[in-house]
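User: Fold this, then the next.

Assistant: Folding the first:
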Amino acid sequence: MDTAYVTLSRQSGLMNEMRLVANNIANANTTGYRQQGLVFSEFVRDLPGHPSLSLSRAQVRNTLLQQGVLTETGGSFDFAIEGDGFFMIETPAGNRLTRAGSFSPSAEGDLLTMDGYRVLDSNGAPVFVPPDAATIDVGSDGTLSANGQLLGQIGVYNVANPENLVREGKTHFRPTGQIDPVDEPIVLHRFLEGSNVNAIGQVTRMIEVQRAYELGQSFLEAEDERVRGALKALMR
């Protein structure tokens, strides 16, 4: 039974990883998406009447923050960050960070994400774009100008410890530690950053996880047959 406990703990972890890998593949073309991974760890558990068991646990998720491919779109309100940093947006649940820079102006002049959340500037205030602006110019540091008049600067923020980022949804992160504006950000206008998912690598990993899970399942079935056979022998 001890081996069954160990195998079941491993199967649970593999199932969790399979879900993450499948989600990564599904978002391989999602703007600003960050690939997720799973960290396996070992822990020892005492069971009544049994010696201590060394079990595996796979509940800690990590996020690959490596930059995705930057693609020129020509969109007047498409932005991408080159290097480190995140855009900050205002949501009903509080401010969140994102690398997805596909924005659009509202009728009131607020710069909004595709979800309708306001984009914030380097001071944490909403970015304003005049609805009647004939032209929008963007500096390499994210400064916005309309009709030759300076409007402000799109905020780019860094987190002191990336491990303090909590993923919410596909492309939003909740910072739980210190965040600060980037001193010299590089913002590309009319560009978007794609997902950083390594699709081929993730498909390969999915096959590996599936084979490992099937191997574990075969072992559990064989163990079940062994236990059944032992019980039948004892009952004779």
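Now the next one, as you asked:
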Amino acid sequence: MQKQREYVREIADQKDNEMAKSEDKDVEIIHFPAFDPVKAADQLHSVAQTAEQWSGALLRVTPGAEDAQKMLKTIFENTAAVGIELSLKGIATFWANAEADLSHLQALVGAKLPSQFIALQSTFLRKRVELFVEQAKQFQALGTRGVADVNKPAKNALDPEKVGGVAETP
């Protein structure tokens, strides 16, 4: 226990010696430039003006951003609706084609003569081409209408006779 006390005293003496050496050194004095209240007031005034300009710009931009957000939301909703409609039309087309193929196979199984087989096959091919043309027209009409629906919000927003997508009142 005695040795520990001596050890602590030695460490304390070393610290005292180090502190005494550092006190002998010159201490540098740091000078701050004089505070000029006029310059500070000018700087605060310019910061206030800048903040006022930014807030004014933000107030002018905010309604446009809200309109753009509404327009994009409508475009996404229209795109989803058109996609669903095209998918449903594709499923209905697939289903109709599958039913036509199965009924044609049943008719071919019932054919007794090669002439009946050839007549059934030629009739089926003619009907398939007509059905294909009709389905292509339906898909084209659906696609054209879908593109118009998707583009409608953007056209309304960019229409010079309308402001923010809403018609002006005379």
